[in-house]
Amino acid sequence: ISKGPGNTKAAKSTAVPPGPPVYLDLVYIPNHSNSKNVDVEFFKRVRSSYYVVSGNDPAAEEPSRAVLDSLLEGKAQWESNMQVTLIPTHDSEVMREWYQETHEKQQDLNIMVLASSSTVVMQDESFPACKIEL
């Protein structure tokens, strides 16, 4: 960015700063799994046994296919082949297509997509639920 009269903007960096990976048990993928804020670098650095994938808005590309693909690419660069469980909060077309098209790669990388088999009923509302034991 050039600096001149009236132009004192500093360049913004969106790169993740260098450093070792962080290991967590459970991670909620930020911003409804939108690709504007989550990329391969996120999954290279933030390593978890469980990732929660939210988002149910195809118009906003949530969840994003690019984010799901980034998980595969980032996990492929981990030194270990620890099991990762992906927990979608909604049944979406994007998730179903990604699951079917990348199932073999998911198996190679030891990634499991958890489907909800339980339903919680609260007052007049019911929704799918998953039990996670850490």
UniProtKB/TrEMBL annotation:
<dbReference type="GO" id="GO:0005874">
    <property type="term" value="C:microtubule"/>
</dbReference>
<dbReference type="GO" id="GO:0003779">
    <property type="term" value="F:actin binding"/>
</dbReference>
<dbReference type="InterPro" id="IPR026074">
    <property type="entry name" value="MAP1"/>
</dbReference>
<dbReference type="GO" id="GO:0008017">
    <property type="term" value="F:microtubule binding"/>
</dbReference>
<dbReference type="GO" id="GO:0005875">
    <property type="term" value="C:microtubule associated complex"/>
</dbReference>
<dbReference type="GO" id="GO:0031114">
    <property type="term" value="P:regulation of microtubule depolymerization"/>
</dbReference>
<dbReference type="GO" id="GO:0005829">
    <property type="term" value="C:cytosol"/>
</dbReference>
<dbReference type="GO" id="GO:0043025">
    <property type="term" value="C:neuronal cell body"/>
</dbReference>
<dbReference type="GO" id="GO:0000226">
    <property type="term" value="P:microtubule cytoskeleton organization"/>
</dbReference>
<dbReference type="GO" id="GO:0030425">
    <property type="term" value="C:dendrite"/>
</dbReference>
<dbReference type="GO" id="GO:0007409">
    <property type="term" value="P:axonogenesis"/>
</dbReference>
<protein>
    <submittedName>
        <fullName>MAP1B protein</fullName>
    </submittedName>
</protein>
<dbReference type="GO" id="GO:0016358">
    <property type="term" value="P:dendrite development"/>
</dbReference>
<dbReference type="GO" id="GO:0045202">
    <property type="term" value="C:synapse"/>
</dbReference>
